[in-house]
Structures are given as structure tokens and as C-alpha cells.
Amino acid sequence: MENIINALNIKKQYGDQTALNIESLTVKNGEIFGLAGNNGAGKTTLFSCLLDLIRPTTGEISIKDKPVNKNSEWKKITGSYLDENFLIDFLTPMEYLKFVAGSHDVNSNDIPQMLEPFKNFMGEELLNSKKYIRDLSTGNKVRVGITGAMFWSPELLVLDEPFAHLDPSSQIKLKNLLKEYNEKTGAAILVSSHDLRHVTDLCSRIVLLHEGLINKDIKTSTNTLQELEEYFSVG
Ligand SMILES: Nc1ncnc2c1ncn2[C@@H]1O[C@H](COP(=O)(O)OP(=O)(O)OP(=O)(O)O)[C@@H](O)[C@H]1O
Predict the structure, then answer these.
(1) In a domain? residue 233
(2) Whose CA is nearest to atom 27 of ligand 1?
(3) Residue of 11, 43, 50, 213 to test ligand 1 pocket, by largest number of atoms within 8 Å of CB
(4) pLDDT, tens digit (0-9, with 9 covering 90-100), for 97-147
(5) Atom 12 in ligand 1: which residue has the minimum CA distance?
(6) Closest CA relative to residue 39, chosen from 173, 167, 164
(7) 211 CA distance to ligand 1 middle (Å)
(8) Contacts of 120 (CB under 8 A, 6+ apart)
């Protein structure tokens, strides 16, 4: 299967500190890729370089063979939610979703049907809430952000710690939603998480970052949760 992401010799330096140092990383079409690592390991830095939110000090990341800092084609096929900065505070959830739809050339008549698979995760109440996003709870902001990243069916989905801030029911719903989305659309999904059980349940492959370096690259199996627990118990 073809690679949707190719990263080569990616280094991100902050003064003397190396936040990221990845010789080579590829992600295949359709892969559910998990990124784990302790605080400061470089997970958000990697996703930020991938989405061209920060520039690596050296090296290049490409989506579908086009460097993300030189060509913006990737934006048409990439849905992402890293943090609250992805939202628009003065819009209601539905106004925000309509805004996202508009930026991806989705016909507004198609929006209700496209939101159908997300109703269970987002909940009717939040979907139709007249509150501005700035007045929502942190968990509800996350639900709006993730739905906004996905409902227009991107081929590549990038979510930074999507399970954090969600209540247990929403975490389980999200896990099922992501699995179903991957099966239905064949999209590649990149997820970072501190929840070892969720990444193991969800991801077909898990990369462990430590101080900016790839320490392990694991194909998920029945032993993976135990392997991760042992790895992090000494970390
Ligand atoms: N703007 C910045 N200036 C200086 N150092 C930074 C900056 N952004 C990130 N770093 C450093 O880069 C390293 C990697 O941070 P990053 O946020 O990518 O880690 P993370 O794996 O996402 O951590 P967490 O699990 O806590 O979210 C950390 O040591 C962090 O302090």
C-alpha cells in the first residue's frame, strides 16, 4: 500500500534543546497510527510539523508526496484537531460546522446527512446548541472540534490527544466512531494519546517517542498493551 505521509530527517530545535529528531517515518494509506510518549516526548511537535503549523529546523514532511510547506493540496484531504485554536469562539457549534463545510466546498444542503454518523458522538443537544463555542465545556469543545475535522470525510485525519477531556462514554463512542470511519472510508488516522488501552484497541500500529526520537514502532498484537505497560512502568 502507498504511503500517505513521508517524513525524512525531521529535526525541531528550540535553542539547545532538540524537541524532535526523526530520521524517517512513513504512514500508509488506511493505517490507524498511534503516537505515545511521556510529556514532552515530541508528539504535538510532530503533528504541528505535519500540519505546517511550525516548521522543522531541518528535513521535510510530505503528504501524498508533496511537501506540506511548499504545496497546500494536502489541506483539501486532511482533517485535524490539535487544540482549541482550531475552533472559532464566537460561533455556535452548527455555525462552526457550516464554516468548515464551506471551506471544503461541501454543499450546505448535504450537511445534515453528513452529520448523521456523528450525532451519537456529538449529541443532538450540543449539535443544536445556541451557545457560542467559547462558552462550552472543554469536553464539548473537543467534540465539536473532532466532528469538524471528520464529517466532510478527509482521507487523512490527525487528532492530538482526542480522548483527553472526554467523559468515558464519549471516549468509547469516539473509539468506535474512528474504527468505523476507517473501515468505511479507508482514511489514514493519526492519533496521539496517553491512554495505552485506547491506542491499543484502536491503532494497527503504535510509535513510541522518547525525547524526540522514535524508540519503538510496534504492529499492534494481543501482547501490545502489556508491552506498553512494561515500557512505561520504567519510564
Ligand atoms: N515553542 C516552544 N519553545 C520551546 N520549547 C518548546 C516549544 N514547544 C515545544 N517545546 C518543547 O519541545 C518538547 C516537545 O514538546 P511537545 O509538546 O511536542 O511534547 P508532547 O509529547 O506533545 O508532550 P505532552 O504529552 O505533554 O503533550 C518539550 O520539551 C517542549 O518543552
Answers:
(1) yes
(2) 39
(3) 43
(4) 999 999 998 998 999 999 999 999 999 999 999 999 999 999 999 999 999
(5) 19
(6) 164
(7) 10
(8) 173, 177
Residue 42 Cβ inside 6 Å of ligand 1? The answer reads yes
Q: Which three cell numbers stand for residue 226?
A: 502489556
CA–CA separation, 185 and 177 (whole Å): 12
Model's pTM, two decimal places?
A: 0.97
Q: Are residues 149 and 167 in the same domain?
A: no
Q: How many whole angstroms from 174 Cα to the centroid of ligand 1?
A: 26
| 103 in any annotated domain | yes
The rounded average pLDDT for each run of 10 residues, N- to C-terminus, in the chain (235 residues) is 93 96 97 96 97 97 96 96 98 97 93 96 96 98 98 97 96 97 97 97 97 96 95 84
41 lines ligand 1 (CB under 6 A): yes
**CA 171 remoteness from chain centre:** 14
Q: 194: how many CB neighbours lie within 10 A of its CB?
A: 15
User: Hey, which of 12, 14, 17, 82 would you mutate to test ligand 1's pocket, going by the most ligand atoms within 8 Å of its Cβ?
Assistant: 14
The interface pTM score, or ipTM, of the predicted complex is: 0.97
Grid cell at residue 87: 475552533
> From the CB of 14, is ligand 1 less than 6 Å away?
yes
Element (H, E) at 188: strand 188-192
| 10, 22, 45, 194, best to mutate for ligand 1 pocket (most atoms within 8 Å of CB) | 45
Q: Which domain holds residue 36?
A: 1-77+156-172+187-235
Based on the fold, state whether residues 57 and 162 are members of the same structural domain. Answer: yes
The rounded Å distance from CA 80 to ligand 1 centre is 19
